[in-house]
Amino acid sequence: MEINGHTRLCGVIGNPVEHTLSPTIHNSLAKKQGHDLVYVPFHVEKEYLAEAIKGAYGLNILGMNVTVPYKSDVISSLRAIDASAERIGAINTLVRMEGGYKGYNTDFLGLYRAMCSEGIKLEGEKIVLLGAGGAARAAAFLCAEKGAERVYLLNRSIDKAQKLAEEVNNAFDRQCIQPMETTDYEKLPDQKMLAVQSTSVGLHPDTEKAVIEDKEFFKNIHTAYDLIYKPEETKFMRLVKEAGGEAYNGLKMLLYQGIIAYELWNQVEVSEETAKEVYELMKERVRI
């Protein structure tokens, strides 16, 4: 594409950002949508985060994504916050508005759209959610909002699991999240459930680990969604499949959170056909 005086700029702020697939998503979308837009990564040190947000607005940057470790830290630099993002307490998308940026959480919406694309339902489900970090927050709020019957929140630190469970249960005024230590997985109900794996265990290059490795655990998982996307098949996913369940990685979540951000910045709707084309490009990049 030709970069000229009309070209708009978007990007992602994080540390590190060198590994990001977001430029593949957004630059491909811009090309397919015919938008004069370029998307680049910005490596920002923590002490310069507030200055980076202010500077981005001053430079007329259309929108930004925010990745680890700044999804909560960025809140104090925003002009406004979307209600769902405020409830979750994490921001991954900044949309330009008068006087600054408004913060959104498209991880939450991207996970739901990705699950729907695979035929996964949350309403009335009993769910095992592994982890209590930033990704788990989005998953826990999503499960509660979409009507999950019960979410067993397993984490190494019971205190962190209890804190997240309390926040979600209070937000929706129902006791749907049950905190547990990961080592207590044998106390889970003996029935088929959906599992969401949100920890970093099994992430490339340490691919031969799973947060739980007991094969008995996997006999009660009918479907699993691992938020890791590299490797393409994690050990957790492999153990689910060996026990007869279905398993999906997190690449579509990454795709759809990016698409939703792109739609917010440009006030457009991206077709499923275009989404599928970008998804194929992402799969090629992950395999490199």
Please give a handful of descriptors for the protein shown.
six-stranded mixed sheet, six-stranded parallel sheet, 10 helices, 288 residues, 21% strand, single chain, alpha/beta
- What shape does the CA trace take? globular
Q: How confident overall, as mean pLDDT?
A: 96
Largest sheet: 6 strands, mixed
Radius of gyration, whole Å: 19 Å
Side-by-side strand order of the widest sheet: 2-1-3-5-6-4
SSE run? EHEHEEHEEHEHEHEEHEHEHH
> What fraction strand?
15-25%
Q: What's the total helix number?
A: 10
Can you give the helix content as a percent range? 25-40%
Residue runs with pLDDT of under 50 for 5 or more positions: none
Structural class: alpha/beta
Distance between the ends: 24 Å
Q: How many beta-strand segments?
A: 12
Please give a structural write-up.
The protein has helices at residues 22-33, 49-58, 83-88, 106-117, 134-145, 158-172, 215-218, 235-242, 251-266, 272-286; strands spanning 8-14, 37-43, 63-66, 80-81, 93-97, 100-104, 126-130, 150-155, 177-181, 193-197, 221-226, 246-248. α7 links the parallel β10 and β11 (221-226). α1 (22-33) crosses α9 (251-266) and α9 crosses α10. The mean pLDDT is 96. The chain contains ten helices and twelve strands. By secondary structure, it is an alpha/beta fold.
